[in-house]
Design a protein that fits this description.
Elements: H1 6-18, H2 25-34, H3 43-53, H4 62-73, E1 90-96, E2 99-108, E3 112-116, E4 126-131, E5 137-146, E6 151-156, H5 158-161, E7 163-164, E8 171-177, H6 186-202, E9 209-210, E10 212-218, E11 222-228, H7 231-259, H8 267-286, H9 296-300, H10 313-326, E12 333-338
Helix pairs in contact: 1-2, 6-10, 7-8, 8-10
Length: 345
């Protein structure tokens, strides 16, 4: 389904109000098709009811409405709309070092937040964020800290912060990897899933939901099918880009060993060379954190994923994502596709 525009939502909401909300999505979409407009997705009905509840007589996009009501409804179910990130500073308290610290919540989402204050905790610290306006509290982990700027990025428990994608999710990502012989064990599979989860949670793509595991097939190659929102094609492209760069660095390291007369004639040696190449690649990437015109980082940048400016929190977040994707098995293949209206590929 082609993504709806504000003009489509506005006409749909007009019809919704005309029937005082007693109308089905199919009826609205039939009306829109008759006008040559685009169809709406089911989440639009939730948004329409929210607009009606707040007394709006004309249409507002989801992100604009969320910003308008964020002060009194932060972290409520109403905030789980298409644009869950709220960027309007408001007061909060952060519990760490056995006491509460006053902070300003610079941005707030259903899965993450950024805060600033005179004292901020170091990366890896477990904290509790308290919203002064609502009294809501949530446990989080500090993922990045900039003591000079007095800012810290927090990540909440994803499984309790975001809902799981529905069966009618618009995109699919299929990951395949050979798992033969000794690799066919619980530890190997669990390690792969953990590394994949780390990548998904490191990417700040504004997702409102966790990808659903549609299927897992273990017949070598292992095939994991995920369905979810528009973040899945970005994740797939990121994995593909990383595999290309890692392969090039592996070839360079391999050439160095062969020049020294060492033949990579078994899996153990090849794995060792891959690990060495990945370590050198990571060092080169981290050296570009302050680069105004990075060269290597551009090889990882894909549509929908910004590498950010030099020394920015966005750049640091991008580097975290690079570390996570490089930690995946280099044999992992990714292919994304758009699904039809019935949730089929």
């Amino acid at each position: 389904m082609t993504q709806a525009r504000p003009i489509d939502g506005a006409e749909g909401y007009r019809l919704f109000l005309e029937h005082d909300g007693h109308i089905e999505l199919d009826e609205i979409n039939e009306h829109l098709r008759g006008l040559g407009l685009r169809e709406l997705q089911p989440r639009s009905m939730t948004h329409f009811r929210k607009l009606q509840r707040y007394g709006y007589k004309s249409y507002l996009t989801q992100n604009r409405l969320d910003l308008a009501v964020a002060g009194e409804a932060a972290w409520s179910d109403d905030m789980r709309a298409q644009y869950p990130e709220v960027r309007r500073p408001f007061p909060g308290l952060l519990l760490f070092d056995a006491r509460w610290h006053s902070v300003t919540v610079e941005s707030l989402g259903t899965a993450a937040a950024s805060v600033s204050g005179e004292v901020t905790p170091t990366a890896g610290t477990s904290v509790v964020l308290h919203l002064v306006a609502t009294g809501i509290e949530r446990t989080a982990t500090v993922t990045r800290n900039d003591p000079t700027a007095g800012r810290a990025d927090l990540v909440f428990d994803t499984s309790s912060s975001l809902r799981t994608a529905g069966d009618d999710a618009p995109f699919q990502l299929v990951l395949t990897m050979p798992m033969a012989g000794d690799s066919e064990n619980l530890v190997a599979l669990a390690d792969l899933l953990l590394r994949l989860e780390r990548l998904v949670t490191r990417l700040n793509l504004g997702s409102e939901e966790i990808p659903r595991v549609a299927s897992v097939s273990k017949s070598s190659p292992l095939a994991i099918a995920l369905i979810g929102d528009q973040s899945l094609p970005v994740i797939g492209s990121f994995i593909v880009a990383a595999v290309g760069v890692r392969y090039a660095w592996y070839q360079g390291t391999k050439t160095k060993y062969e020049a020294a007369g060492i033949q990579l004639d078994n899996e153990q040696k090849r794995r060792k060379v891959q690990q060495e190449a990945d370590a050198e690649l990571l060092s080169a990437l981290e050296a570009e954190e302050s680069a105004e015109a990075p060269i290597l980082l551009q090889d990882f940048e894909v549509k929908g994923l910004d590498k950010g400016a030099a020394n920015s929190m966005t750049r640091r977040g991008f580097l975290d994502a690079c570390r996570a994707v490089i930690a995946l098995p280099v044999q992992l293949l990714a292919e994304s596709s758009e699904r039809d209206n019935d949730g089929r590929r």
